[in-house]
Amino acid sequence: MITLYDMPLSGNCHKVRLLLSLLELPYQIQAVDLRGGEQRSPDYLQRNPFGQVPVLDDDGLIIRDSQAILVYLAKRYGGETWWPDDAYPLAQIASWLSTAANEVANGPAKLRVHLKFGSPIDTAVAGQTADKVLGIIDRHLQSRDWLVGDSISIADIAVYPYLALAPEGGIVIGAYANIVAWFQRIRAVPGYVTMPGMWQA
Amino acid sequence: MITLYDMPLSGNCHKVRLLLSLLELPYQIQAVDLRGGEQRSPDYLQRNPFGQVPVLDDDGLIIRDSQAILVYLAKRYGGETWWPDDAYPLAQIASWLSTAANEVANGPAKLRVHLKFGSPIDTAVAGQTADKVLGIIDRHLQSRDWLVGDSISIADIAVYPYLALAPEGGIVIGAYANIVAWFQRIRAVPGYVTMPGMWQA
Asked: Rounded CA gap, B134 and A144, in Å?
């Protein structure tokens, strides 16, 4: 059985919920009480020493980090549609997983956590990071339907939630027409699930 | 022919130089003049819209991002030693690639670029990020020789350079005994190459 250690308002958790749904994999949710500090309990730190959600437990195999969980699910359950066998598309996917782990996390995601939950951040730096990465992604999608290749991949799933949640960080995401068109393509994929706060047309 | 768009003092470039050397792959260096702003030229931005080094060009296949380049080289040239076929070790490797892209980049690497090149940063935030990630890695290595599995992987190579360069950011890396022991194991791997500024016993 797959268990997802989850927090409903986390975009990182949503990456995993989205892929689990697209792959039609049954799973159970284990809610983590972040306000109560459960993520810093010895029990939880055993699963993830970084004290973050999500964590996936697949019959005792424990995986931390949303990008790594996408890799695991794609490789184990997704077939070649979700996990190409060639080095070049894999590397392109990996480059966007890095972007999700760094620029997306430190730009739009940080602005949101600041506005929504009051976390102290350097808003100027996060704003610059957001502007840069959103501009790059919008230009990248000018001539492409998906971040890598001809169909949705875990690159799209890793980058999508915090871009769709960007309005909660004060970003006018509607100004990025190619990103918005890509949102619509993602939302049309069978099995798509949303979460509260995501941009609506 | 493999071409590495490189800057000698970049730890991100060193990840790639190290793996190329361990794999005994011939390659040529194309130095990028970061001080002169070459990374912002239209020509370079075509290769990497983020305007960063390294970039790899393998007979016309262009890959940006140091973690993605490690994935590419491991998968294409490394055999199963460097690119396991099972989902679980792959996911564990991916989790450390995220750590390299985020916490290592925003902790020890940022402190170094600040002290060495004068980049303005929030030193308190970078210091906290560095303390946390170094503590986690040191405890992780308490009972293990390598970050993932029983031999060196691209997880080690992605995390290593900015930890070995941490003294240039004012970090007393010698205080982390398990990390230092891991440094020694990495340095004993046939084909190991170093770069200026790395911690010495």
From this structure: 39
